[in-house]
Amino acid sequence: METVLSGIRPTGNLHLGNYFGAVKSFVQMQYEYNCYFFIADWHSLTTHPHPENIRNSVKTILAEYLACGIDPEKATIYVQSDVREVAELYLYLNMNAYLGELERVTSFKDKVRSQPDNVNAGLLTYPCLMAADIIIHRAAKVPVGKDQEQNMEMARKFARRFNQIYGVDYFPEPASYSFSDKAVKIPGLDGSGKMGKSEGNAIYLIDDEKTIKKKVMRAVTDSGPTEPNAEKPEPIANLFTMMEIVSDKSTYDHFNELYNTCQIRYGDMKKQLAEDINLFCAPIRERILELLKDEEHLQKVSLLGAEKARENASKTLRDVREIIGFKSDY
Length: 330
Ligand code: TYM
What we know:
Number of strands: 5
Bound molecules: ligand 1
CATH topology of the largest domain: Rossmann fold
Helix content: 40-55%
Largest sheet: 3 strands, parallel
CATH superfamily of the largest domain: HUPs
């Protein structure tokens, strides 16, 4: 059975981008594949979070994952820092990664610009750790959103390079995966770009009805089309993309028709969209709040996940050490 893996940094709550970019595909795959889902707490250290914040975020994200329908009896859910084998594989991959290629990664270049006082080595070698996360389980498919494409390209490169350097065919090249036929990018409703926690434009699964409505009603629009079947400018296209994802097809078609015939009233469309987002989030929100009350259950889930993930990771590492030429009695 093929292995599927996905992960998230615990730097805030789960938002609609995370859900439709990665979690939804994962939930659908958990019954057909050997699935691993992990919370990337080592990755979050690049911003030097307070220990208390890490503890809380990890717990919250775990509850949110479960509330989305990830079944801990089927999939292995674990916290990255519980599986130290990943750190050893990261070390090996760092030896095969070159400064030039790491410096060219767009998200690294963005960080150099946005946080010049904290350009740490962890940021530079982020793609090596992400590759280690994936190949430690020899995953073949990785549900991720469009924003992870370059990191995925690097993961494939590092898997390939390891095989080439040691003359083995050990690591599969992991493919990005999405429930739709193309990579998903959930837009923000603030005019342009993607939805994201650092972009400050996210609608969170835990947001209540009032908050959702407030966020959607603030979405950027224009004065409306002036000719039939006009191309939609980005802020409007974003609103439609969101509606296509959370609303019924008939609702989407209705507003699309109004747009194409220049009769659209964005206020009505936003009201409908807010309602549909709330309909989608409400049951998940309820489950999150329930799960957060049950600390014992969350702890049990992460212990079980850590055990299963470590078992598989240590098998890989035993092989890797032997391939590299180290003692393999690990
Ligand atoms: P992170 O924590 O930023 O996001 C988690 C997942 O959510 C997806 N995502 C989106 N998809 C579509 N539209 C959006 N607006 C949107 N915003 C976020 C991301 O693509 C991602 O799939 N580097 C990763 C975490 C990671 C990882 C891994 C993922 C570390 N190691 C190994 C997969 C495999 C990250 O920062 O995701």
